[in-house]
Amino acid sequence: MKHFIKTLHENRIFSLIIWLVIIFAAIVSLPNLSQVVMEAGNPQMSSKTQMSKAQRLENQWGGGLDGTKSMNVVYHADKGRITNSQQKQIYAKVGKIQKSNGNNGISRITTAHTSPNGASKFISDDQSTEIVNIQVPESNAKSSSFANSIRSQFNVNDGLKTYVTGPQLINQNNNENILNVTNIVTIAAFALALLFIAIAFRSILAPILSFITMMIAYLVSLSATALMSTRLALPYSPYIPLLTTLVVILFGTVASFFLYRRFELVLRNSNDEDVDPSKVATKSLVYPFTAVAVITALAFGSLYILGFSSVRAMGSMAVVVIITLLAVMTITPMFMQLLGPTFFWPKKKTLKLVNEGFWSNLTHISLWQPIVGLVIAAAITVPLVAFYRSNVTYLPNNNLTAKSQAETGSRVLQAHFNQGKPTPVTIYIKNNQPFNNDNTISPIDEVTTKLQSQKNVSRVYSVTQPGGTEINKYYLRDQLSKTVSTLKGISNSLSGSQRTLKGANRTLKQKNIKNQTKSVNALIKQLDRINNTSQQAETNNFHTFSPLETAQSSKQAEKSKALRKNLSQLSDQLSNTSQSLNKLSNQISDAQNSGIDAQESVRQYSNQAARVRSEIASVNRTLKESKRKLTPITGYITGVKKSSAGNTFYISPQQINDTDFYQTKYNFASENQKITKLEVEFNDEPTGNTNLNNIHNMQNTVKTQLQNTNLRNATVAYTGQPIENANVQTNFDRDFMVGTLMILAIFFVGLIIVSRSILHPLWWLITYVMSALAGLQATQLIMHYTTNDGRLNWEAFIAMIVPLGIIGTFELTLLAVSYRKQNPDMLGWLHNGIHSFGKTVSYVMFATIIIMASLFFSLLHSLDFIGLAIIITIIIFNVILPLVMGGLGKLSVTLPLAQLHHLPEHKAKK
Question: What DSSP line would sit under 349-391, residue for residue?
Answer without folding.
Answer: SPP-----HHHHHHHHHHHH-HHHHHHHHHHHHHHHHHT----
